[in-house]
Description:
Mean pLDDT: 80
CATH superfamily of the largest domain: Spore Coat Polysaccharide Biosynthesis Protein SpsA, Chain A
GO molecular function: glucuronosyl-N-acetylgalactosaminyl-proteoglycan 4-beta-N-acetylgalactosaminyltransferase activity; glucuronylgalactosylproteoglycan 4-beta-N-acetylgalactosaminyltransferase activity; metal ion binding
CATH topology of the largest domain: Spore Coat Polysaccharide Biosynthesis Protein SpsA, Chain A
CATH architecture of the largest domain: Alpha-Beta Complex
Organism: Salmo salar (Atlantic salmon)
Largest sheet: 6 strands, antiparallel
InterPro entries: Chond_GalNAc, CS_glycosyltransferase, Nucleotide-diphossugar_trans
Membrane topology: Single-pass type II membrane protein
Strand order of the largest sheet: 3-2-1-4-5-6
Strand content: 15-25%
Number of helices: 18
Number of strands: 15
Shape: extended
Family: Belongs to the chondroitin N-acetylgalactosaminyltransferase family.
Helix content: 40-55%
Amino acid sequence: MGLTLDRKHTDEESKQCGMLRRGLLAWVSRVGVLLVLVCCSLSLLYVMTCSPHSEDNLVSHALPRPGLGVGAAGGTGGAQSGPQGREDYQAMLAEREEQHKLHMASLKKQIAQLKEALQERSEQLKGVQETMERVAGRGQGRQSPGGGALGEGGQGPGADRSHTDLQEFLRSQLGRAEVHQGTRLPNEYAVVPFESFTLQRVYQLEMGLTRHPEEKPVRKDRRDELSEALETALRSLNTPRDGANKGRTTKVYSPSDFIEGIARTEKDKGTLYELTFKGDQSREFRKLVLFRPFGPLMKVKNERVDTANVPINIIVPLSQRADKFRHFMHNFREVCVRQDGRVHLTVVYFGKDQMNEVRSTLENTSREINFKNFSLLQLNEEFSRGRGLDVGARAWKGGNVLLFFCDVDIYFTADFLNTCRLNAQPGKKVFYPVLFSQYNPTLIYGNHDHIPPVEQQLVIKKDTGLWRDFGFGMTCQYRSDFINIGGFDVDIKGWGGEDVHLYRKYLHSNLLVVRSPSRGLFHLWHEKRCADELPPEQYRMCMQSKAMNEASHGQLGMLFFRHEIEAHLRKQKPQRSIAKKT
Length: 582
């Protein structure tokens, strides 16, 4: 008797599951068919509207036929067949063509949205089918003593739970960010400022490499980000709210109604956008607030990187400057030979003047510390940095090696050499570090008597130097990548330009360019001379570099106003002496 009741109960459950599955499948199928029909209807409407025959007819009726004069047109039409009439027709055609294009764009967008909705419904249908299959399997699992289907059916709720957790996390990001209310901050330095933007321009505090306080967004991610925010706002404005606008005409918003927006990013929470549009009345506005929450961290890679067998070939082009080369070799001995020990030095020397001194410095270093991993190449031609680096890179015969293009006035640490190894990968990555450029020590420390040793000068502060983000000469890349990209433009003579050309080659390739500040790479200050024979563009670049490397904005200002400051100090001396006597 009990067995019969259990079987009846199980049969009833199976029937209920089957009915539920058939009902859900029928409902989702109807929705899918309806969306397909709507999509097909819109496609047909698009084809009919965008048919070229109607446009040809419009042109044939609108323009006067060639060869017909004023009298042939007849009536009032004859007055319009002159030059003025043609201009009117052309203006009308241009207006109709613009309307036609806008209508086409609108239809294309609607079709794309319907396709997305159809795809979403198809995925929902697939999800329902999988759910029903799991339910059916669970029912069978109850009937079978093994119960294996129960364990498999647990995947659905787990996936739903993960999706729900993600949604809750993203909503919590909105609550944590400064959107609805402010947060107590310790001081003015903790404020996250907004940037403002219009359709064409961004007004920014962090100016980057361009140094422009306002500019058209150059980076693609920035352009796409702002365009997406604007499109989302327009879609929200033009989507009718149920019952809100019944009985009255609503305005259709377009990009021309956008006035301005402000945006800021809290790097651990997300980006806030506030966009302002023209309203229906002259003093009325529409304001939309959007928030792009940042998701949780995602592990991408966990790998072991062995740099024990990764030598670096440091290539230094040189002409004269034997005293600077001695200072360079002093740092090279300590960092590259004693601390690192996996470095080869290639010096490409131009000319014969001071050549013996450079060779003597290398031989003394080799003899004193038993260092044999160096090459000295001589070129009897005019100095060209790009030519020297190109010759040095191609002269290597020991297989694919990591190259570090360096200058004689560069100071680097052993940590930088490891950073060089970690951020370059053959066929995948090249490393373009941003070095810290030292200001003129005489201006920083006042006079020569107070200038400390070089090692103590290399402090990263705003009054001691600047990040040289406009320079691309120091780089780590594998020889194979350098050869495949085409190397330097060896036709560039003298100072500057060759490094930018190579940098742009990599930007136009599929290799990843790693660009970041490096705390272990310094440019030592030296007096810069810009030769008169340089072309105007190179001379301008040279002078800009010279001005930026001399001192900070504040220090140059104090130097410019030094006469006023000295006059003020002279006036203060008598007043101080009188105050002391009293």
